[in-house]
Amino acid sequence: MPARNVVVIGASAGGLEGLMRIVRDLDADLPAAVFVAMHVSPSAKSRLPEILRRIAPYPTRAVVGNDPIEEGCLYVATPDRHLVIEDGRVFASTAPRENHHRPSVDALFRSAAISYGPHTVGVILSGTLDDGTAGLRWIKRSGGTALVQDPAEALFRGMPASAIANVDVDRVLRAEEIASGIADAVTRGGEGSVSQNGPVDDQGAPRDDGEHHSASDFVCPDCGGTLFEIGEGEVLRFRCRVGHAYSPEALHGEQDRALEESLWTAVRSLEEHADLSLRLAEWARDSQLRIAEANFRNRAEDALEKSRVVRRALNEQSDVPAEPQDESA
Questions:
Q1: Is there a catalytic annotation at residue 217?
Q2: C-alpha to C-alpha distances, 90 to 2, 33, 101, 110, 173, nearest whole angstrom
Q3: Which distant-in-sequence residues (6+ apart) come within 8 Å of 69 by Cβ?
Q4: Considering its fold, how many domains does the chain have in total?
Q5: pTM of the shown model
Q6: Residue numbers of the domain that contains 260
Q7: Dihedral angle at the C-alpha atoms of 114, 115, 119, 125, nearest 10 degrees?
Q8: How confident is the model over 262-312, as pLDDT tens digits?
Q9: Is 95 left (phi over 0), alpha (psi -120 to 50) or beta?
Q10: Is 14 in the same domain as 155?
Q11: Of these residues, 46, 101, 104, 131, which one is catalytic?
Q12: Active site (annotated) includes residue 131
């Protein structure tokens, strides 16, 4: 039968154990459809649907096309595909990455909030940075319920901590308590109709959104296009014309990585310049050009000194590491 309630779960690094505990503990009679978006390597075959199928109390489906949403089913995002809900159906989307992820937790949560409004329960599990925070705000704005794993037990506290800091969450729970929390939220239900805000696009955003757009001074890390600031209540996002989207924290992380790449490129260029200068100095010496030899040696030393300064700065910095991919999923 068609689902009246939906439960959307977002997880990233360190989230598999908590996700498995929740799925194992779900009530087989829960009157809802459940959706899972977890960050996994886009190039590897995901074992997540197989893992969850073994422990879920009802049918588990890896979404690869466009399927009707049925109560009592578990739908799992596949690698390199967004999971998007619209008008009683769920589909896999190859729309641009969001927060450098596909599937994106925000895309799933946003589309669920738009399509099911107060009949949506959102759950944030372990992960780095803040993917899922903006989507959870969509759920709360639409009258749904927001549940978050206790950051104290999460292997990576970034995602749950960001959600708690930026969203008026309903409950903060340990993984072992979340299935019960989901059941309570679904049983209470929500007020209002299921469909709230009209159709969504391939990224789970409103097709005719009323968001405020203004060009920023920043460029998209993915394609180099202009990023536009998009206001969603108190949440700020950046999105380019192509559709790549970033939260402020994710954009900051991408700029950190781009800056580090640029600095290592500078080190390579300086050291190559020093090598060339030394080779030219040898040529000048063999040609009895003493002034030219000294000039080239000075240039080599100057380039090497600059290279040492940049290397020292790179070695002393304390950047946030890139998010690990859960190979077990």
A1: no
A2: 12, 11, 19, 13, 28
A3: 2, 3, 6, 33, 75, 85, 88, 89, 90
A4: 3
A5: 0.79
A6: 250-316
A7: -70
A8: 999 999 999 999 999 999 999 999 999 999 999 999 999 999 999 999 999
A9: beta
A10: yes
A11: 131
A12: yes
